[in-house]
Amino acid sequence: MNLTFRGGVHPKGRKELSREAPLRRFDPQPGEMVYPLAQHIGKPAKAIVKKNDPVLVGQKLADADGFVSACVISSCSGKVKAVEKRRTIAGTMTECVVVENDGKYTPIEGLGQKQDLSGITGQEILNRVKEAGIIGLGGAGFPTHVKLAPKAPEKIKYLIANGAECEPYITCNDQLMRSSPEGIVEGLEIALRLYPNAECVVGIEDNKPEAIAAMQKAVSGKERMRVLPLHTKYPQGGERSLIRVIAGVDYPVSMLPADVGCIVLNVGTAYAIGRAVAWNEPLFEHVLTVTGEAVRVPGNFIARDGTTFAQLLEACGGLKDGVEAKKALSGGPMMGVAVGSLDVPIQKNTNALTLLAADPVEKAEKDQTFCLHCGRCSTVCPNGLVPALMADAIHMKNWERYEHKLYGLECIACGCCTYICPARRPLTQLFKQTKAEIMARKRAEQAGGKK
Amino acid sequence: MNHRLNLSAGPHVRDRWTTSFIMKMVLLALMPATIIGIVTFGLSALWVILASVISAVGTEFIFDKLTGRPDTWKDGSAALTGLLLALTLSASTPLYAPIIGSIFAILVVKCAFGGLGKNFINPALAARCFLLISFPSAMTVYSIDGVASATPCAELAAGKVVNLTSMFLGSANGVIGGSILGLLIGGLALWAFDIIHGQICFTVIGAFTLVMGLFGGKGFDPAFLAAHLCGGGVILGAFFMATDYVTSPMSRLGQTFYGVLIGILGALFRIKGAAADSFSYSIITANLFTPFIDTYIVDKPFAYRVKEMNRRIDGWVKKPLLQRIPKPVLALTVIALIAGVALSGVFSMTKDTIDAQKAAAAAAAYKTVLPDAESFEAQNAKVEALEAKVYGTDFGRVYINEAMVGLDADGNVVGYAVSVTSAEGYDGNVTLSLGVNIDGQINGISFTELHETPGKGMLCGEPAFMDQFAGKTASKLTLGQEIDGITGVTITSKATTNAVNAGLDFINTQLRGE
User: Fold this and answer.
1) Does residue A217 sit in the same domain as residue A173?
2) How far is the C-alpha of B281 from the C-alpha of B245, rounded, in Å?
């Protein structure tokens, strides 16, 4: 079987910084905990608490507003201090619930109780997932209860557990797979109940032999489940790359994975499903890596939502002596977002804090030259696009060509083209922006058409 | 954490390879061929290379300084252009040629269009073609160990047999970068390291071989095809010129199409046109098509290439092959092919006329050198017995073209005339007719093909030199004894004397009945 996809790059993994650090729980000292209402793709949640309301660990703070939306759960006990705009990871001010943490972490009644799963219906599973506020923990943050409910569940052939963790630096899923493989398998078994004809495949890059061994042990003897080691290559953990490898299908952006018979869940999401459905424990904490050359002791954490990056960095012993962090990333260096301040709360889909001691982008901006037409961007594009021509079309403002001849909207913004470009051109950034503009224009046209 | 953190859009890491790193890798890949070239052709090759590289880098340096642009001369691309140009030149090229060529390449072809990444044709090849047009005689002298001779490629075009091993190793006469071994080492390494695209270099070679096999006139004879692949810069072109990033298309499909175009044009030009420079012209022609290819021939994303998936997208209907290729591409392809065929057609159509004129010239020449004869009787069988091989061993690379027995009005033999070609002229072939009367005395010589340097080699065509031969009876003439050479025209004088000696030898051993 072909264990990899076409294209892709091999950035330096740098996983050795934190890969052997075992997961440890981090409970912040009493103080503010901030919960943004828009942590997921879709409509922001609606706050159901108000100022001075007492809250407990596991209590719902905000309810899903509409179908594509997700609940927000409190990760601490205390009192609601405010519902107001705060600065979040994206750098913008968004509506947040601010809770004054009393540091006691008093749980809500029934939290962590083993549930009887015999005779549970699919709808019940989906409800519990929705109530637990679970979203995709791989990065995009798509509400999981929506993803798990395709139009035709019987047509799903593969339930893919994504343990590839192809993003450089990040190791928290590696540690999760090593320490709690049973928890992941539990969640996958629950999800598998929804799809009578599906096989569950756990895809793990082959640079994580311990995780592969642990997961193989956990799935042994289970029906319809197997572990598939994958080649180490970025973006192996992208949804499309995994589907390409496991189901052998390429599909356009106009289609969802479910349309080609696949559901892809991050292993962290699978774990969260298991906790939520089988143990009545909604999603208020998740695994996260704090790493980078500037960090004194990089580590893997089970961190509570609402903790700030600064607190996590402190738990790692702060910065190395004499080293200045040039750049702080929420996530890894390929798809992560640079943050301007560490005093922002982590969200459900925050999987890493990476502090770089040197910023390659600074040098890249100086080195930028004309496009050489070398075509390397096209060679590495996992979707088979030609980024250099797309950039040309953008510069010529030829949107028709960009969209219909070059299929520019198929870009998944994985960053491979920018990474590889010898002329150091910022390609991915251009495509992200253009995609947003084209989509906005289309929406405006549709709205205009309706009138 | 009281300092500012950098903010930028992702990705936040970059690959190690920059433009200048890649340029340096290509320079490195050219080293085997360069070194073999210097070893084969001696120091003169080194001077040509140095002149070319230094003037290329210098031109870009001066341009950068004068225009206040960033220091692009450091990135290695100018040095690469200079080296590539030098490798396509002969080691005996006068040094002004690489210097002028490099300045033209950098200043006109590259910098004037906006520098690296903006030029529309390959600067090194453009400069080579510019030099070919500007200095046709200086550019076509190929000499090895100080002896000028025809290149294997020229001999191949003349239908002669060549030494494949020496071509492969690079010890044959030709351009400095003629070592196929050296080029293959570098080229395959570049391909293995993903610096050049296999879909260009291998399709060039594939298409060239296919067309050569189909229309080359010798079928798929491995020795014939291998000789053509080893000669005339096919390998240098395929691996180092056609794959030039800036002037080749960007998508895989476009690159494949471009490679095929180069291969086909290269073979057509080779079969029907100028053998040695066919590849320079075919690559430059294909360079001009690159913007069109990039506009119309672009791969679809993987998701749209699979039929089954395509059916699931609304409104998708599979069109027949011809309709899927955009019309401008079809039109351009047709135009390119017609142009190619027309160019080569003109050559082949005029070839008969040229041959007829040559025959007439030869007949007139026979008459000049043997005025007593009323008619001539061709001795084809004896000439054919030579199998178009080099005649004798003492005369250099000399060929007997035709032999005549001169008859008077009564049918008595009055003398003999032969047409002899020496391939060792200063600028290609020297062909002459030699007339010997029945007593073995030279009646005279007459040139039918002599295009040497005016004021130098052409002096051999003057009576002062030519008339020396008349009346000589020796069976072998020596330059400096029976014949006074012209000062500074050693090569042509020698070629002429050799041709005469070969003709005498042929007459004495083959034509004289007694």
Assistant:
1) yes
2) 18
The alpha carbon of A87 is separated from its chain's Cα centroid by a whole number of angstroms, namely: 20
Buried b (16+ CB within 10 A) or exposed e, A405-419: bbbbbbbbbbbbbbb
Q: Are residues A213 and A292 in the same domain?
A: no
Instruction: Mark yes or no for CB contact A244/B17 under 8 Å.
Output: no
Residues of B with CB below 8 A from A324's CB? 3
List, in order, residues 6 or more apart from A114 with CB less than 8 Å away.
A278, A279
Q: In a structure prediction context, what are the per-residue pLDDT tens digits for chain A, which is 451 residues long?
A: 446 788 899 999 899 999 999 999 999 999 999 999 999 998 999 999 999 999 999 999 999 988 899 999 999 999 999 999 999 998 889 999 999 999 999 999 889 889 888 889 999 999 999 999 999 998 788 999 999 999 888 889 999 999 999 999 999 999 999 999 999 999 999 999 999 999 999 999 999 999 999 999 999 989 899 999 999 999 999 999 999 888 888 888 888 888 888 999 999 999 999 999 999 999 999 999 999 999 999 999 999 999 999 999 999 999 998 888 899 999 999 999 999 899 999 999 999 999 999 988 988 888 888 898 999 999 999 999 999 999 999 999 999 999 989 999 999 999 999 999 999 999 999 999 999 999 999 899 888 765 5
Asked if residue A304 and residue A319 are part of one domain, the reply reads yes
DSSP, residue by residue, B253-271? HHHHHHHHHHHHHHHHHHH
If one counts every other C-beta atom within 10 angstroms of the C-beta of residue A151, the result is 8
**Tokens describing residue A44:** 């922001």
A261 contact partners, CB below 8 Å, separation of at least 6: A155, A156, A157, A158, A247, A249
Pair (A306, A263) in one structural domain: no
Smallest Cβ distance to B250: which of A338, A342, A389?
A389
Same structural domain for residues A257 and A290?
no
Locus of tokens 């490798």: B87
Does the distance separating the beta carbons of A410 and B11 come in below 8 Å? no
Tally: H helices and E strands in chain A: 14, 17
Instruction: Out of B5, B116, B304, name the one closest to residue A370 (CB).
Output: B116
- Token representation of residue B138: 């200086």
- Residue A8 located in a structural domain: no
Residue found under tokens 């699979």: B306
Residue in B13, B250, B306 closest to A375 by CB: B250
| Two tokens, residue B159 | 């239908």
Window B:194-253, CB contacts with A under 8 Å? 194, 197, 245-252
Whether A152 and chain B come into contact, CB under 8 Å, resolves to no
Q: Which residue's entry shows tokens 């004289």?
A: B512
| CA dist., res. A126 & res. A120, Å (int) | 10
Question: Is A9 part of any domain?
Answer: no
B225, B205 in Cβ contact below 8 A?
no
User: What gap in Å lies between CA A410 and CA B451, rounded to an integer?
Assistant: 62
Among A41, A74, A101, give the residue marking a domain's end: A101
Q: Is the ipTM of this complex over 0.90?
A: no
Residue type present at position A239: E
Q: Where are the beta strands (DSSP E) in A299-428?
A: 299-304, 327-330, 337-339, 352-356
Q: Which residues of A touch B69 (CB under 8 A)?
A: none
Sign of the torsion angle spanned by Cα atoms A46, A49, A52, A58: negative
Terminal-residue alpha carbon distance, chain B: 109
Residue B407's beta-bridge partner residues?
Answer: B375, B413
Residues A131 and A225 occupy one common structural domain:
yes
Range of the domain at A372: 364-450
Give me the number of domains chain A comprises.
Answer: 4
Which residues, at least 6 apart from A405, have a Cβ–Cβ distance to it below 8 Å? A393, B298
Beta-carbon contacts of residue A370 (< 8 Å; ≥ 6 apart): A423, B114, B115, B116, B117, B118
Strand runs (DSSP E) across B351-391, as ranges? Answer: 375-378
Number of neighbours of residue A83 by Cβ within 10 angstroms: 19
Whether pTM exceeds 0.95:
no
